[in-house]
Amino acid sequence: MILPIYGYGEPVLRKVGEEIAEDYPNLKETIANMYETMYHAYGVGLAAPQVGLAIRLFLVDTSPFAESDDISKEEAEELKAFKQTFINAKIVKEEGDLWGFNEGCLSIPDVREDVFRHDTITIEYFDEDFNKKTEVYSGIIARVIQHEYDHIEGILFTDHLSMLKKKLIGKKLMNIMEGKSRPDYKMKFVNKKGR
C-alpha cells in the first residue's frame, strides 16, 4: 500500500526514532509498504518518520544511481545490487574525507543542495529478519545511508546547510509546509489549508 510521505514541517520528522522489537506490530507489512511508497516516489531511500512512524527503521535501494555516467563500472554494479532494510541502526564510525553531493529528499520536494558527508561509515543494525549486522560502507551507498540515518535522529539534510543557503530556500520550505508543493506522489503537509 502506498503511504503518504510527510512533508517538511511535520513534527514527526524532528523526533528521534524509538528502537523496535522483533514483534513490532505489522513490521513486515510496514516494510513492504515503505518499499512500495519509495519506489512509487522514485526515491533511493525512505525512513519511517517520513511515513509518520517515529521508529528506527529505514530502507535503501541505490540501483537508480547505477545509471549515472559519472561512476565506474564496478561501482555501478555495487549500486545496482544494493538494497537493504535497516532496523535499530547505529552509526559507530564515520571516517574518510568529507565530500559534497547534491542531495534531495522526498519530504522536501523541489529542494536540492550540496551536502558534505564522510566517505566511509561503520554501521550496526538488524536486517528485516532481525539478524544483527555490522557493515562498512563507502561512497554513494554510505551517503544514502547517512541521509536516511539522519531521519531516524530527527535531522533533515537542510540542517547541514549554511545559514545563507537556508535563507535562500526559506520560501520553498514555507511552500512545502503550506501544501503548495506539488510532487507527483502522495504527501501530508503540516499547514495545508482546509485539512
UniProtKB/TrEMBL annotation:
Q: What is its EC number?
A: 3.5.1.88
Q: Which reaction does it catalyse?
A: N-terminal N-formyl-L-methionyl-[peptide] + H2O = N-terminal L-methionyl-[peptide] + formate
The record's annotation in InterPro entries points to: Peptide_deformylase, Peptide_deformylase_sf
Stored Pfam families:
Pep_deformylase
Q: Which cofactor does it need?
A: Fe(2+)
Q: How is the cofactor bound?
A: Binds 1 Fe(2+) ion.
User: Does the UniProt entry include the keyword Protein biosynthesis?
Assistant: yes
Q: Where along this sequence does the record place binding of Fe cation?
A: C105, H147, H151
User: Catalytic residues?
Assistant: E148
One GO MF term: peptide deformylase activity
Keywords per UniProt? Hydrolase, Iron, Metal-binding, Protein biosynthesis
Report the superkingdom from the record.
Bacteria
Instruction: State the NCBIfam families in the record.
Output: pept_deformyl (TIGR00079), PRK00150.1-3 (NF001159)
Q: Which family does it belong to?
A: Belongs to the polypeptide deformylase family.
Q: What does this protein do?
A: Removes the formyl group from the N-terminal Met of newly synthesized proteins. Requires at least a dipeptide for an efficient rate of reaction. N-terminal L-methionine is a prerequisite for activity but the enzyme has broad specificity at other positions.
What's the name of the protein? Peptide deformylase
